[in-house]
Fold these 3 entries.
Entry 1:
Amino acid sequence: MTDITIKITDRNGTLHEVLAPTDMAMNIMELVRSHELAPEGTIGVCGGMAMCASCQCYIKSDHQLPEMSSDEDLMLAEAFYVEDNSRLSCQIPITIKLNGLEIELAPES
Amino acid sequence: MIKTDILIIGAGPTGLFAVFEAGLLKLKCHIIDALPQPGGQCSEIYPKKPIYDIPAYPEILAGDLTTKLLEQIASFQPGFTLGERAETIEKLEDDTFIVTTNKGTKHHAPIIAIAGGLGSFEPRKPPIPNIANFEDSGVEYIIRDPEMYRNKKVVISGGGDSALDWAIFLTDVAAEVTLVHRRNEFRGALDSVDKVQELKNAGKINMITPAEVIGVLGDKKVTGVSITKNGEEEIILDVDHFIPLFGLSPKLGPIANWGLDIEKNAIKVNNALDYQTNIPGIYAIGDVNTYPGKLKLILCGFHEATLMCQSAYKRIHPNKKYVMKYTTVGGVEGFDGTKKEAPKAVVKKIE
């Protein structure tokens, strides 16, 4: 298995280009936490169950993402600062197809 | 003034289990929690989710774990101050502490165990520019006294259980109930969704979906809200109260100002010994603490609670010698007079 590259803009507007493993069953929220790109306790509060929206991000590239589950959709319906390109990063598994994905973290709420 | 041996801040699984380990050492506990019910995240965020890494439970729902812990500690009769947030701490000359909540309840104890998880749960406030001007003047994020809505016009927004449950409840109290949500679908329990449908059909709940409250109107008090409904023009709705129910999110809060060493939103502790903080007598256990190699797991919180209690015992009784006793040997003697112990073996002679 190989690593892929993902571009993440943090909540202060700083761009980070990070390597993401495709063989660890990790999702994007966990990737952000593993690189400490958002303070602990402000992202992934529910652990990744699509139950808190603290990991909301905006998708900035044209990658084909897995379809949104109704859990994710309804959680986003109660989140703030939601845009058309909003997703919960905990619901996006890291796969080889996502090489070059660009995301931006939504503001903390 | 509430007096106890160990004052625990946080009624999540770690805080609850600490009561058990303290009880084995004959130490009494009292627990403060900002939520109205015990269980912490397990009851507030994911009560219906199964947990698979609690030793000896191949699968247990987070809500059931809370129920079982409460059953396990019942005979140690812990006190609870629920729905109040620990606000300030004062160290007395004799090295004991007084912790006061946001409602002024005072607690006195020689040992403080902070088991606060990610912090106390605070309501999530929608980013409406002028909303802060109306807090407690018609905007409420938590319903404390339903009677204040009697014969008033109320708009609730949100799509989870609390939005649905309060919309249902307030139909019997308020003059008019409107529910606004950004989807036609709701995240809450199916029973509640059905009930709201029924009340909507009966004309008792006014539903505006998919829509969003984007403004609060009024001078000093709320007199209305403005709502946008997908692509249509803004609607003005005359109401006396706007109740946004978008769930709760944890914030470390006032504990951050207690003079404790904090790193990455967590309290640094001595993990080589007893999970004590930089202030002797104050411990931090469970998700709220940090040390090299820390894992935020319930089972790690249980271990930390156990070592914390042994250390607390030595601090309270510096001159007493003690060795840890297995519950299989000593049983469990509650403070309520009950005793659980292994049944005596039946001895029978072979002729």
Entry 2:
Amino acid sequence: MIDQDLATAHHEAGHAIALRHFGIQVSKVSVNNDGTGSTELEGSLPAREEDTVLVGLIGIQSELRFLGADMTFSDFVSTYESGKGDRDTIESETRTIWLAHRGIWHQVQYDNTETFIEKKKSEIEKLASAILRKKGYPKALDQKEIESVMKI
Amino acid sequence: MPVSSDKDAHRNHINRLVGITLTGLLLTSCASLHIRDNDSTTTKIAKGFIRIPVAAATLGMSEGWHTRERMMESWLGHHESDLMLAWGSPAQVVPDGSGGKILMYAENRMYAAPGYAVSDTSGYIHGSVAGGSLYGVGEAETVTTYVPPQTYQWQVSRNFQVNSSGVITNYSWQGL
């Protein structure tokens, strides 16, 4: 489904652009046919804790920014609190969002991520677009392909 | 019976979550993401969290799917007037055949993916040493391909079944 692909492509593109911004190589981004996706990195996470949090939050916040017509950040939080979305990846990621929302990471983290997305909007869209153009599933870009798209 | 404070309960909850995350990490072999004892709680959580996108395979539907499902579910038991106050009038109302009705909301959505350029550089270089000097010749070529913008369109629908008392009893939806 194209709507699912769009959401996941922007989600993963957000992770990838943030990682690259912090100097971390992204070896692969992919979108699966069930609405899930993954971003694979090489090396260590950003040294600063708040940067690592940004890398995490940006997935869902990108999804919301580009495709969340009838959803808010609070909707994601309440999804976690209701015990829904409790399958492996989804719950882990939503759990982090929930922790952020609860103030363990301050609202400023959410705002920082929004600001980052605004600055990197065109890069996120470009990478998401390249992912979407791949034929079949998983729609994946390897490191070389990511570099080819991002260097212009 | 001792009663834990909210703060204690909150801390216990976080510890449990970190525990779950740690369990997940044991399945990985990515050294950079190993949680150390001296990591702060937030770092532990962040590492566990960031490990997720690194995994080669993930399961289940996207966050968006679950969240929309939960959003629809949250309307169950509410009166239709609450829904209309929040969402406005439905695009269509049809009888459900059992004394109730179905409120149908629909919308066409569109997303324009931007065009982008892909650059691929290839080349060669040959070198030789003669008489103490280095001679080299090389050539490189960059091919740039432009991928034009593309527009995606899809339909979104949100339907609610309402009983004869005006209470929402069921729902269905399609499209993110």
Entry 3:
Amino acid sequence: MRGSSGVLVLVYAALLAACVPTSGIKPVDALSAVSAGHTVLVGRVELHPALKPGEQKLGDSYKEFADEALLIVDEELRPVPQFRRGDLGERIDAPFGRLFFVELPAEPTYILKGWVVMDAQVEVVGPNEPPPDPAAPLAGAFKLDLKPGDRAVYIGTIQYYRDEFFSTQKVVVKDDYAAANEEFQRKFGKGVALRKALAVPVSASE
Amino acid sequence: MIRQARFASLLFAGALLVGCASDTIGPERDLNDPTNSLVFVYVDMADAPTGIDDATLKPQGEEGYWHLVVEDGLMYQRYLPNGSYQFSRLAGSSFLHGEVLYDFPAYGQNASAIRIQKPGIYFLGSFKYKEVKTGFFEQAKFDIERVDSPTELELLNRLLKEDWVKGSQWDARIRARIAELGKKK
């Protein structure tokens, strides 16, 4: 019996690792590192009410997903019905309540959906028991008005309001430009202007 | 308001585990505890691979599950404290398909969601199982669609005939609800 449990542990660990690949969208630490034709996208995500301590069940290997949203990005608007590896390759890792600075091609694009990793840990599950749902959805798609020539674009604070079932009840895009620009200038200097182009909610069928 | 898709995964399993789940909540409460709520629901599984032998409600923000009593499509739980609940899983078996688990997504509301803020009798609705088409290599999916029949009144009359109702607080409470529904007709 001990042998078969071990196999199950390995299978589940491998499954989770496969679920969340490294994102092709990287954080920016210096403007000089941004490729030609790309821009720095600046924004913030909030979850209301915030996650409670212990609400996310993350094993040691998955702590990087604590208190953050994974925002799925694509140049085409399309539904994202499930938490799938294929969608996660192009995502913004957005820590709740803090500005993110990531590099994207300077062309119109979409945030298709968000996810919060809720259950990612190595544990023994029964041979016929499906693994728990790994992530909770943050519903709502947004158009990002990025243009060729943009060096840095601010898209606002995206506030997701959830109920006790973790259904998204409301999404608000708040303009916190002044504070964001201050932090942008502190981080990158005053040489590049941060253009404001708030994320625009659009409908995408689930 | 943005609502989530109600699709859920359907898993053909080799053994039924839900019946012996160790994280089952209740019934540790007294049947006549006035803070109990009676929650009931009907699911027509005529188009499903199996009937239902077991069903669980997930209390939101709490560990564990509440199992429902299942009787020919009618499912109920008579010990529920206040809270928010929704279907977590249905389970059944058939000779052809073996044991089958019908899992609902853990996050986001499904059609059975209910918020109980004061003790009472709550009808989650009547539903019909509906298969959702998927690709050949994709996991099977299903949905539950709200239907008009059987009605709350019909199901309450079924519940009233249950042995556990007689002599309990539920006898008067179910009769009161039936009278209330009668006045609305």
